[in-house]
Amino acid sequence: METKKKPEVDLNRKKGLFFNIGLVVTLALMIMAFEWPRGTGGDQFDIAKISDDFEDLLEIPPTEIPPPPPPKIQQPEIIEIPDDEEIEEELDLDLDVDITEETVITDIVMDAPAEEETDQIFMIVEEQASFPGGWDKWYEFLGENIKYPAQARRMG
Fold first, then answer.
1. Is the dihedral of CA 17, 20, 22, 24 positive or negative?
2. What integer pLDDT is reported at residue 7 of this predicted model?
3. What distance lies between CA 39 and its chain's CA centroid?
4. Quick check: 74 pLDDT over 90?
């Protein structure tokens, strides 16, 4: 098989030389940019040459900004709500009891609260939880209730 490249025109052979030339040119441009003499600027003046009389001309009188007025405090309104209904309970309790030495006090036995029947605790669930109506209803619900921010919609 015959080589198709000629060694005389191979640029990879001179790659180091080209890289060094590029560095030297870049360095020369940077030095020129930082060392280039700056112009006088025309209307600029030297601060060291300013006399004391010039300070009087630049003196700015102090200004006082009045504070903003305090916000008005709004008093809450008191609204009276009349009682619609008066609840009167009539209890049929006879509280006039004479206690003597012969009075026997017995314990009042109340029914014990009924124990609630608790469901069994399952270690393995046979039926997976799902949205009522299935996946189609879930996607409908999401489509109706999710509001994307405007920037997220623009970005897709």
1. negative
2. 78
3. 51
4. no
What confidence score (pLDDT) does residue 36 get?
83
Tokens 């299935």 locate to 134
| Tokens, residue 59 | 């003196």
| Encoded tokens for 137 | 């209803």
Which amino acid appears at position 27 of this protein? Answer: L
- Its pTM stands at 0.24
Number of C-alpha atoms within 13 angstroms, CB side, residue 20?
A: 4
- Look up residue 24 and give its two tokens: 């030297």
Dihedral of CA 77/82/83/85: which sign?
negative
- Dihedral of CA atoms 117, 120, 121, 122 in degrees, nearest 10, equals -160
Interatomic CA distance for residues 20 and 26, integer angstroms = 10
Q: 52 with 58: CB under 8 angstroms?
A: no
Give residue 13's pLDDT: 83
Q: What is the mean pLDDT of residues 17-42?
A: 87
For residue 155 the two structure tokens come to 């970005």
For 49-68, how does the pLDDT look when each residue is reduced to its tens digit (9 = 90+)? 655 555 556 667 788 889 99
Contact 131, 141 (CB under 8 A): yes
d(CA 63, CA 118): 78
